[in-house]
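Question thread 4412

I'm putting together a teaching handout and wanted feedback from people who do this every day. The idea is simple: show students a protein as raw sequence, then show them the structure tokens that encode its fold, then repeat with a second protein so they can compare. Below is the first pair exactly as I plan to print it.
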Amino acid sequence: MESKYYVCPVCKSKSLYLKHEASYVYSYLLDSDAPGMKNTEVFSPFLYDRRKQTSSIEYVECDNCKTKFNSDLIHETLEVSNHDL
């Protein structure tokens, strides 16, 4: 069976990862106990009242040389190799 995989054009490594980074602003209502309506006794940061994504980016990164490629250009930038398994 033949399989295709992407190859880093810089170092020729097959070890590529699609990564997604995102930044969020978490909001907690201030009340008489721990901040947030979902926090009653102890503040737990994952029990937020509101979350808003402020930015995000997706890219492909070579695990070997750490070069980053725009994920939108994956077919134009990265080399595709055929390999018999």
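The second pair follows. I'd like the answer to focus on this one:
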Amino acid sequence: MIWATVVQLPKLGKASPAFAICSVDKCGCVEDTTCGEIDDSFSTQASELSEEEPQASTAVASVVRVKPWQYVEAKRQARPTTPPSRLSTAQVTAAPVVIKPHPVSQVPSPVTSRAPSQVPSRRSSQVLLPPGPPRLTQVQVISDQAKPPQGTPQIAAPAPALMAIQALRAVRSWAQELRLAALERRIRQDPTDLGRRVAAAAQLCRLSELDRAVPHLEAVLSASDDAGFLHHALTSAVGPKLFYQLPKLTAKFMRKIALTGECMEEFGSRSEFEERATVYHLANALVILKAAGEMQAASELFEEAKELVWQGKRPITWQSIQQTPAVHISGLSHRPFWSPKPPLADVLQENYPAILQEFAQLQQRREERLAAYPNLVESGVWDMLQLYSGRRWNPGPCELMPFTAALLQQHLPSADVPYIHYNSEEVVVFLLSPGTKVRLHNGGSNVPINLSLGLVGCSGSFCEVAGTPQPFEDGRVIAFDDGSDHRVWHDGAQERWVLTVRVLHPELVADPRRFFCRAFTRRTCFEAWDAGRARALGCEEEKLRFRGPMAHLSH
């Protein structure tokens, strides 16, 4: 059972009535806000507003987190109208509560009786009370029972979104508005305070009021040339989940960061086999613009990046707007879809029946799955299970698919050359649930080639690479460039599963000396190597030492 005390607050300005629940030391509903800070904000604003707004109505809301098949019993109880203290104790029993508990000695007895051995643990938290007469509701949730106890009046629980989650969001929104008003008052006093502008923008983004956040972010972008501060402002205020809702502003931040001297200097300290800050930020800006459909802005930024000059040379070697990864090895041929396919594709298709037979065992092991790349998921579920990654075979997943693992261990690693990223070669099983859409993205470099073997449920699933879609099919391999812009979606009725094997670009394997002799730092994003391995790659140390950065580039 769960007992919770819920207080309905008076309206504050135009805001809706909210519910405030907090622990003694820190509010469980407000991020980075102590009770003292809320009290300060409350005393400066809520007390003034309470004179203009009517007091809270006597209506009481039953707010608690339950599952749809559970039952809720509501009990109403009035409190005296005399001014209470700012904090009073709320009684809570049962373990799964959303607020931080602490022990108390007295707990109200439940409505329904229980045997002594079934008495739940006793917990308590604090309830923040504003000025004015509060209203109190106690809610009992009878959990894990198919039917309620006989003789107890019951009401069916509404959907969770209309209950605890909705109430806690209201609490968060209310408290953030209090803090936001204080921040904006200080910003009006000192418009040059960029730190408070970032804090205000972050609060507004959390409240989904992006139109109000944009002026603060634009002021920060205009006033600051500090790459670190701009990066902090963008990530703390907007964050990856909102990049696609503010694509042009996000791209402006990333462009300005990319063109700072601090970032440009990495053209001299890192080779093209590493993530250099300028290319990294421009690549992210481009993929966000393209994913959001802002192709005109993307084209302009792409042309600017290609014409960028550092020490008399153009260090960014992108050739196509549809292939703009953060690590671009110049000289590797670009084909969005590979035909003919690499030889390993035939191996996968020939062994499809055996792979499918043991896949059924893996399909049931949900605990082994990981979220693939959550920030790229527009809707649905995109999960993965990695058999081979980071140049190592993972024992757990390999035990579930022993034949597949043994088969691919004969082919990976494909060559004794450095990996660019941890997943330059990889074996992954990917799941898409029905209705899933994965945003446009690229794999971070133009080195891997993806070989995706459809396992089951591929009907209605598609992969679009560089603007050209191809359907997934059970038992068939799609081979495509991981560095090109691609997206996937699944309109089928069943879960779609594919086995993806990433292999190195065949030209890099065939002639490593041609490429790795340009790695003057002798390292990639994933690994480093010594002079001995450099010689094994065909790279003479003197050439590495004296060619210097970008010696292969034209003016």
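Top answer:
Good format. For the second protein you could add a caption like this: Residues 453 and 476 are 6 Å apart (CA to CA). Confidence is low (pLDDT under 50) at residues 1-146, 152-157, 542-547.
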